[in-house]
Amino acid sequence: MAKTRHIDAAERRARLVRRQLPEPAAQSAEQVTESLVALHSTDPASVFLSVAARSRVGAADVERALYDDRTLVRMAGMRRTVFVVTDPMAAVVHSSTTAPMAEKALRDMLKLGFRGGTLDAAWVAEVEDSIVAHLSGLPEATSTELSALEPRLREPVVYAPGTKWETEQTAGTRIMRKLAMDGRIVRGRPKGSWTSSQYRWQIAPEPLPDLPAGDARAALVRAWLASYGPGTEADLKWWTGWTLTQVRAALKAVAAVPVTLDEGAGFVLPDDVDAPGAAPDRAALLPALDPTPMGWQGRGWYFPDDAKAALFDRSGNVGPTVWWQGRVVGGWAQRADGDVVWRLLADVGTDAEKAVAVEAERLAAWIGDVRVTPRFRTALERELAG
Questions:
Q1: SS3 letters for 134-176?
Q2: How many other β-carbons are positioned within 10 Å of the β-carbon of residue 338?
Q3: Measuring CA to CA, which of 85, 143, 146, 190 is 20 to 30 A from 11?
Q4: Is 137 exposed, middle or buried (0-12, 13-18, 19+ CB in 10 A)?
Q5: What pLDDT score was predicted for residue 116?
Q6: Strands 6-7 and 257-261
Q7: How many helices, marked H, and strands, marked E, lie in the chain?
Q8: What are this entry's molecular-function GO terms (predicted)?
Q9: What's the CA gap between 102 and 134, in Å, rounded?
């Protein structure tokens, strides 16, 4: 019987650098996205800055892929988070993750109610069909514009009635989100710059293919292991938001090979057991919610414990990070005058400091006149921004 291979933290960091932090090159926004499986889009600026950290692609090229060519798709996905994925990956994410989320979103919506009344599935379906009909006659529209055409979107519904969390929401907030999860509408170009989240809605160009859920989960795990492996069951369960039973079934479907990690049991793809070789020295400035720092539940092998208070907010959202040789070594921010400033939280030597300075200058030039403030701010980012 072959001995189970051990992959230590140093090798994991080398894999991370080679696969997720290459030197910026002439690769497209689609290639960057595919290499990371999905880009976090809860903060829209993160998509653009994640691409900028790994390529020479400009913001206009990312916008073209998102809104004109539609080779990149913004959609709700893993852990009910909004991501950007490549067009082929959209069907995989939808069938493995988003479609079950839409079913739960409807169940959750029906637990709400109007003041003095109930909310039922027939009413929701009628409003959804009305929105789709209105959008079918328009190139695009914001939620505010649609609520003028369909006033029922403005109906107040009660969240957590009778509890200390009781509050009112508009029905439209949840209905628009569910329509997008169902794949009937898509987020279009926002109002404002690429940092804006005031999206215009459009009719989906075409329905997403309906893949068998088990096959879709296997395809997503295969993609994740190819980019993030080795990883643990806990990493995959956290990243996908699936049950442990679903994670284990997907690992079995891709014939994942067990390995041991410093933290315990892990998995790699069958063709990824051997060590990839040493990685080049690489400095990188990654944005808030970048997929690399948010790629694993267990982060001790690349994220020092003593840096977490400065670089995460209270809800577990990571802020802008500075990397060297596959490890988080500091944080950065943009000041009001446009300067990109950074601080190292570890002694990494003068070569690393010079490399970080070069990346900071490159990033400032890439951002140009735009001002970027992360949606979820961290202690160090606030301090550096001034």
A1: HHHCCCCECHHHHHHHCHHHHCEEEECCCCCCCEEEEHHHHHH
A2: 14
A3: 85
A4: exposed
A5: 65
A6: parallel
A7: 15, 14
A8: DNA binding
A9: 21
* Residue type for position 27: Q
Tokens at 33, concatenated: 């996205």
Q: What token pair was written down for 119?
A: 């909310």
Spans in the chain with pLDDT lower than 50: none
* 233 CB-contact burial (10 Å; exposed 0-12 / middle 13-18 / buried 19+): middle
Q: How many CB atoms lie within 10 A of CB 92?
A: 25
Instruction: Report d(CA 311, CA 343) in Å as an integer.
Output: 11
Could you give the CA distance from residue 16 to residue 121 in angstroms, rounded to a whole number? 46
The C-alpha atoms of residue 75 and residue 282 are separated, in whole angstroms, by 31
Task: Please report the beta strands in 215-363, taking only residues with DSSP state E, as ranges in sequence order.
Answer: 257-261, 264-268, 283-286, 321-324, 327-334, 340-344
Distances (CA, A) of 142 to 55, 133, 136, 169: 31, 15, 14, 18
Among 307, 301, 337, smallest CA distance to 322 is for 307
Residue with tokens 């979107």: 153
Measured CA to CA, the distance from residue 175 to residue 178 in angstroms comes to 5
Measured from the Cβ of residue 227, the count of other Cβ atoms closer than 10 Å reads 19
